[in-house]
Design goal:
Chain A is mostly beta strands. In chain A, about 0% of the residues lie in helices and about 50% in strands. In chain A, strand 4 and strand 5 form a beta hairpin. The chains are: A mainly beta, B mainly beta.
């Protein structure tokens, strides 16, 4: 597609519920990133994929967070047993490849509210 | 943790005026990027400046980079109402982007 697509746009989850957030990157983009943006803050790095390989998951806040990209295109960020502190906008970004001087294309994000 | 810090946190200007915001960072970088975020939307890449560059222009945008001071500035000239948004600097090192907390710019008609 023309841009990075994320779904759903909004998600309300009851505390303790599991959620799955989807990211459809630009076709052919090798690198895919997930970021978490709390209200009034800048995005914080969560995890990075190069094709299907998850090369860095150092930003995942806890073992309740899990991300995958099994075929090197679509990625899913799963949060188990959601807590109120998980409420944030989750942004996905992709780029042709990392390590070169180019900007990243971000999706519109999924706003997760845990009640 | 946030690597960069933008200054000011908020800026209100009249249409047609210039807007300047600054960014300071702490560690080595490959490049520094500026992004715009409209309320409730994703980030839009505006401009990238490499670590060996000092100044770059793109349309009404001018970015400077001083690696000795670990700082950058973004100038938007002849601002328009559509420039109302939050602006973030992000440092790029080893594929990770580290963002500041952003500058909220309001352009009054």
């Amino acid at each position: 597609g023309a841009g990075v697509s994320q779904s759903p746009r909004y998600k309300v989850a009851k505390r303790g519920q599991d959620v799955a957030l989807r990211c459809d990157p630009i076709s052919g983009h090798v690198s895919l990133f997930w970021y978490q943006q709390a209200l009034g803050q800048g995005p914080e790095f969560l995890t990075y994929f190069q094709n299907e390989a998850q090369l860095d998951k150092s930003g995942l806040p806890s073992d309740r967070f899990f991300a995958e990209r099994p075929e090197g295109s679509v990625s899913t960020l799963k949060i188990q047993r959601t807590q109120q502190e998980d409420s944030a906008v989750y942004l996905c970004a992709s780029s042709l490849e990392s390590g070169i001087d180019s900007g990243y294309t971000f999706g519109s994000g999924t706003r997760l509210t845990v009640v | 943790s946030q690597q960069g810090e933008e200054d000011p946190q908020a800026l209100s200007i009249q249409e047609g005026e210039n807007a300047t915001m600054n960014c300071s960072y702490k560690t080595s970088i490959n490049n520094l990027q500026w992004y715009r975020q409209n309320s409730g939307r994703g980030l839009v890449h505006l401009i990238l400046i490499r670590s060996n560059e000092r100044e770059k222009h793109s349309g009404r945008l001018r970015v400077t980079l001083d690696t000795s001071k670990k700082s950058s500035s973004l100038l938007i000239t002849a601002s328009r109402a559509a420039d109302t948004a939050s602006y973030f600097c992000a440092t790029d090192y080893d594929y990770k982007l580290s963002f500041g907390a952003g500058t909220t710019v309001t352009v009054r008609a």
